[in-house]
Structures are given as structure tokens and as C-alpha cells.
């Protein structure tokens, strides 16, 4: 049994975790779920290879506090651009906080221009897979409302 709370509380908004459209890796998603739960968040983990339509449907259903897109197969930049563009086109999802992270490019972390493009397309933050990236992600998480751990 999970030591972390997973059932919804009234008014509780989950964090949606989604793998990139083309990305079949799963342990990154398990890692993120555990990290988020350890930091007081309820998680709805959509798993790998999440198409935009599914992410949009789930975001409308759950009204998440945050959407976290994770990609490690090297296509994160292109997949991530496609995802956030479609998400932000939906009138009810223009303001939901959304971030992306992982091993986003085939030649290492995204460069400044790519990070700027991802942000301009609608991500609130872009994290690389370094320890500093995870630390920055946790600092951002600390700004979200947290569930009381029981
Ligand atoms: C296992 C594995 C696979 C398995 C996945 C099985 C499964 N069900 O998950 C299989 C065999 C299917 C696979 C396939 C492929 N893989 Co693979 N795979 C790996 C491997 C060996 C381990 C991945 C893993 O599970 N890590 C454990 C998790 C916990 O760590 P992680 O994924 O790195 O996530 C961490 C960070 O990235 C970061 N992070 C991730 N997301 C986010 C999000 C946020 C917000 C933040 C803050 C941090 C963060 O935090 C996590 C913990 O530190 C890695 C190499 C490696 N040693 O990392 C290659 C690797 C990820 N694979 C790679 C590649 C290229 C592929 C393929 C394209 C190979 C191919 N030609 O077919 C395919 C892609 C298939 C697809 N459609 O996506 C490359 C990606 C290279 C890149 N990004 O430039 C890697 C890095 C291997 C390499 N060195 O080349 N793979």
C-alpha cells in the first residue's frame, strides 16, 4: 500500500503527469509520481505516449493544479511543442500551469533558444534532467498548495 495519500479530498486538484507523445519510457513517470506524492501532491499519471487529445480530455476532467510532461527519448522538444500548442489552443486550458522536463533533446539538454521557444509556446517552466533541474522543479512545487500527509 502506498505510504502517500492518493484519494481526492474536497477541492483537491491533482498534478497530471504525462509522457511525451512518442515516448514509451515509463520509469521517469513512476519517478515523478513518487516525487510529487512525497511532496504532498495527488497525482494522476497518464502513462507514456500520451496524445494531445487524451491530455486535453483529462485536463478538462481533473482541472489539475499542474501538468507535468516528461520526455527522455530525445524527441521531447518537438513532441512537447506539439502538446503545449494544442493544449493552449483550448479556451479552458490557456492558464493551467504546465511544465516539461527530462532528456529533451538528442544532443543533451535544450539550448537557450529551444527553452525560450518552449516557454513562448506555453510552458511555464522547462527543466533538464540534472540534479539542478530536479531541485528547480521542487522549488516550483513548493509554490503549489499541498495536501497534508497522513
Ligand atoms: C530502459 C530504457 C528503455 C526501455 C524503456 C522501457 C520502459 N518501459 O520504460 C526501452 C527499451 C523501451 C527504450 C526504448 C528507447 N530508448 Co531508451 N532507455 C532506457 C534507459 C536504459 C533507462 C531509462 C530509465 O528507465 N531510467 C530511469 C528513470 C527513473 O530515469 P530517467 O528516465 O532518466 O528520468 C530521470 C530524468 O530524466 C529526470 N526527468 C525525467 N522527466 C522529467 C520531468 C521533469 C519535470 C523533471 C524535473 C525531471 C525529469 O528525472 C528522472 C530521475 O532522475 C535509458 C538510458 C539511461 N541509462 O538513462 C535509455 C534512453 C533514455 N533511451 C534512449 C533511446 C534513444 C531510446 C530509443 C529511441 C531507442 C531506439 N532507437 O529505439 C527507444 C525510444 C522508444 C520510444 N518510443 O520512446 C536514449 C535517449 C537519448 C536522448 N534523450 O537523447 C537513452 C538516454 C539511452 C542513450 N544513452 O542513448 N529505452
TrEMBL record:
Any coiled-coil regions, as ranges? none
Asked whether the keyword Signal is assigned, the reply is: no
Q: Does the keyword Chaperone apply?
A: no
GO molecular function terms attached to this record: cobalamin binding; metal ion binding; methylaspartate mutase activity
Q: What is its EC number?
A: 5.4.99.1
Q: What positions does the domain B12-binding occupy?
A: 12-148
Which is a Pfam family this sequence falls into? B12-binding
Q: Which UniProt keywords apply?
A: Isomerase
Enzyme class name = isomerase
Which protein is depicted?
A: Methylaspartate mutase sigma subunit
Amino acid at each position: 500500500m502506498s505510504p502517500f495519500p492518493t484519494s481526492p479530498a474536497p477541492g483537491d486538484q491533482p498534478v497530471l503527469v504525462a509522457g511525451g507523445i512518442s515516448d514509451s519510457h515509463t520509469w521517469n513517470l513512476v519517478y515523478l509520481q513518487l516525487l510529487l506524492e512525497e511532496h504532498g501532491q495527488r497525482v494522476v499519471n497518464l502513462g507514456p505516449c500520451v496524445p494531445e487529445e487524451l491530455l486535453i480530455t483529462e485536463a478538462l476532467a481533473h482541472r489539475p493544479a499542474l501538468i507535468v510532461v516528461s520526455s527522455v527519448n530525445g524527441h521531447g522538444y518537438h513532441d512537447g511543442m506539439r502538446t503545449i500548442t494544442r493544449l493552449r489552443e483550448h479556451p479552458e486550458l490557456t492558464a493551467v500551469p504546465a511544465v516539461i522536463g527530462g532528456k529533451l533533446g538528442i544532443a543533451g539538454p535544450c539550448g537557450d533558444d529551444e527553452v525560450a521557444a518552449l516557454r513562448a509556446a506555453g510552458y511555464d517552466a522547462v527543466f533538464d534532467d540534472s540534479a539542478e533541474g530536479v531541485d528547480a522543479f521542487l522549488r516550483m512545487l513548493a509554490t503549489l498548495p499541498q495536501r497534508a500527509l497522513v
